[in-house]
């Protein structure tokens, strides 16, 4: 229980990668602040399950990641409830696909706000608490698209490249404060959201489920296997451990070999 008594704030954590990371940190003893949208009963079930299974406390903040004031309030809520903010995982993200010349300005602004600017605002709010405690871990959910690009995803690729740069700069600033800043860059991760896309893609392209998975979704991943949310969570837990105290400013690929090509 290396995180016993510590507090973790995980954005975009009501499902998928974020929820798995929150659960992984709770398993290691951290109290957690969940964040994100969804059905109230589903969020409450996830929150209650964390408390029941891991013997920690869990609360939910509905903070909108496009609103800096709400992000500040989320971090303040964590500090007021648990007395500290020790781990920050910036995981919230959205996607939109379009050619650059047709990309709606409002979609560009939304993706940059949620995928990049929200991380800055959360870090700005959380770092003073970490400095006061003399310890902290900041982890960003980046993407294979923080290293390579794909067409029609200009805003997403720009945001993910940007969050790596933000993390490197912060890592250097905080190097003597015992606060590390690192990125995890998954390829395609098996989540309910990805799974739900398969039937429509099968119908639209006239493909079997296996063809959609191997030739469409996993076309770029040499292993032809999805990353699991548990694998991402395990890496996040490692980055919070004492064993990773000298790991900072790094970007960890977890993409089945995608970016090795």
Automatic annotation (TrEMBL):
Pfam families: adh_short_C2. InterPro entries: 3-OHbutyrate_DH, NAD(P)-bd_dom_sf, Sc_DH/Rdtase_CS, SDR, SDR_fam. It is an enzyme of class 1 (oxidoreductase). GO terms for biological process: monocarboxylic acid metabolic process. Keywords: Oxidoreductase. Its EC number is 1.1.1.30. GO terms for molecular function: 3-hydroxybutyrate dehydrogenase activity. PANTHER family: 3-OXOACYL-(ACYL-CARRIER-PROTEIN) REDUCTASE, 3-OXOACYL-[ACYL-CARRIER-PROTEIN] REDUCTASE FABG. Belongs to the short-chain dehydrogenases/reductases (SDR) family. This is 3-hydroxybutyrate dehydrogenase.
């Amino acid at each position: 229980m290396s995180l016993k008594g510590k507090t973790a704030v995980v954005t975009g954590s009501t499902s998928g990668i974020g929820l798995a990371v929150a659960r992984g940190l709770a398993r290691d003893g951290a109290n957690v602040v969940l964040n994100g949208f969804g059905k109230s009963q589903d969020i409450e079930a996830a929150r209650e399950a964390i408390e029941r299974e891991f013997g920690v406390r869990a609360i939910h903040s509905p903070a909108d990641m496009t609103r800096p004031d709400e992000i500040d309030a989320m971090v303040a809520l964590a500090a007021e409830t648990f007395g500290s903010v020790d781990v920050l995982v910036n995981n919230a993200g959205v996607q939109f696909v379009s050619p650059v010349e047709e990309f709606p300005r409002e979609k560009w602004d939304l993706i940059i706000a949620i995928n990049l600017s929200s991380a800055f605002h959360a870090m700005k709010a959380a770092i003073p608490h970490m400095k006061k405690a003399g310890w902290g871990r900041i982890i960003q959910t980046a993407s294979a698209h923080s290293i390579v690009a794909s067409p029609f995803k200009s805003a997403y690729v720009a945001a993910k490249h940007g969050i790596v740069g933000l993390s490197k700069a912060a890592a250097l600033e905080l190097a003597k404060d015992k606060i590390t800043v690192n990125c995890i860059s998954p390829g395609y991760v098996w989540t309910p959201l990805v799974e739900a896309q398969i039937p429509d893609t099968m119908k639209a392209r006239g493909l079997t489920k296996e063809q959609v998975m191997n030739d469409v979704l996993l076309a770029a991943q040499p292993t032809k296997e999805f990353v699991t949310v548990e694998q991402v969570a395990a890496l996040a837990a490692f980055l919070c451990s004492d064993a990773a105290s000298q790991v900072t400013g790094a970007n960890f690929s977890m993409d089945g070999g995608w970016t090795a090509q």
